[in-house]
User: Fold this.
Amino acid sequence: MQASRHDAWVGFFVLVGGAALLFLALKAGNLLSLNFDESYQVTAKFDNIGGLKSRAAVKSAGVVIGRVESISFDDKSFQARVVLNLNKNVVFPKDSSAKILTAGLLGEQYIGLEAGADEKNLASGDNIKQTQSAIVLENLIGQFLFNKAADSGAPVAEKP
Assistant:
């Protein structure tokens, strides 16, 4: 009888440990976000979102102020439509701008918000008009190689 009681307690602690590991794995993978703060939604359109994913951070001055709710394609403007959930206690002017930035050289992408100077603030359902798309490393390398090839093919001026 004593052994089965100990087995039940060991089983209980193994289940609690497994649940804790699952919680940590989901939290580390940015797949779980327990945020009970109220938020409001704004929309931004980008020409290229690069590797931006849903649940990516929205930061301002390095502080997480929200998350990317969803990403879809707008077939009228041929742009990516990104819906952002911003914390209710954080307000930004209507003329604020959004950029897609990368954490480190090859890190994950997030959205950086920069405050504007308008007196009116963003409200739920508003659009952020000023956006800057993600910098795609392959495009930069291609441009660099193209410019180097063009420079090497240019005629060299002779000295008198």
